[in-house]
Amino acid sequence: MQWSLVIPLKPLTRAKSRLADTAADGLRPGLALAFAQDTVAAALACPAVRDVAVVTDDSLAGRELSALGARIVPDTPRGGLNAALAHGVTAVRTTRPESPVATLNADLPALRPRELLRVLDAAGEFPRAFLADAAAIGTTLLAAAPARELLPAFGPDSRARHRASGAEELTLDAVDSVRQDVDTGADLRAALALGVGPRTAVAAAGLLTPGT
After folding, report:
1. Which of 44, 35, 61, 62 lies closest to 5, judged by CA?
2. How far is CA 169 from the centre of its chain?
3. Which of 43, 129, 163, 182 is a plausible cystine mate for 123, CB 3.0–4.6 Å?
4. Are 169 and 122 in contact (CB under 8 A)?
5. Rounded CA gap, 98 and 108, in Å?
6. Strand pairing partners for 54?
7. Contact 140, 181 (CB under 8 A)
């Protein structure tokens, strides 16, 4: 099964505010872009991924992620995360109506293609499925089979929201790189310990080292 992925990315100047205790204002946009670049590159390297659509209005991010091979979808609804995701799925299914779709967070800098493959293969067994984040509170991936609505319910405690919506929770081990999103300094340390992509490694150099 070949998947289309939809990745949302807010304007870089507003991204990663919870990293304020780790990175100064001037550094956070670069970190957010590096996270997204490593996420998109790893996703496109996954054998189960046919294409990646990034929903963003950030011109710099659009240029850099397009150069990696992503399709850029303007966030015309400008109605928040769930509206952006629904818009991205509609854009994907306009050209690939038969494609299963999955949303993926843009802040998975340690993402490994083979672990993503395991998650997508497992998700393909259900009409809708999701993977909880490392904190077991949020969601890093939400998937829907062809002709099924995605019904994104991101926000506080999205794990419980997606479970309540009828999506199957995937209980896989050894897929830490797909769970480890980065919102805080502790998250960044955990991602560094897993091994981040090259752009994040450069952007985070000198900020933190694993175990500190």
Report:
1. 44
2. 17
3. 129
4. no
5. 27
6. 7, 72
7. yes
pLDDT in tens, 26-75: 899 999 999 999 999 999 999 999 999 999 999 999 999 999 999 999 99
172 C-beta neighbours (distance < 10 Å), count: 16
Tokens of 34: 């590096």
Which residues, in sequence order, are bridge partners of residue 163? none
Q: Provide φ and ψ at 135, rounded to 5°.
A: -80, -5
Separation between Cα atoms, residue 134 and residue 183, nearest integer Å: 11
CA distance 187 to 55: 24
Q: What is the mean pLDDT of residues 98-115?
A: 97
Is the pLDDT reported for residue 210 higher than 60? no
Distance between CA atoms of residues 33 and 89, nearest Å: 22
Enclosing domain of residue 183: 3-202
The helix or strand, by DSSP H or E, that contains position 87, with its residue range, turns out to be helix 81-95
User: What is the Cα–Cα distance from 23 to 29, expressed in whole angstroms?
Assistant: 10
d(CA 8, CA 107): 10
Alpha carbons within 13 A on the beta-carbon side of 195? 2
Q: Specify the CATH number for the domain of residue 39.
A: 3.90.550.10
Alpha helices in 96-167 (DSSP H): 113-123, 158-164
Q: Domain for residue 145, yes or no? A: yes
**Does the pLDDT of residue 209 top 50, yes or no?**
no
Q: Does residue 95 sit within a domain?
A: yes
Distance CA 148, CA 108 (A): 26
Number of domain units in the chain: 1
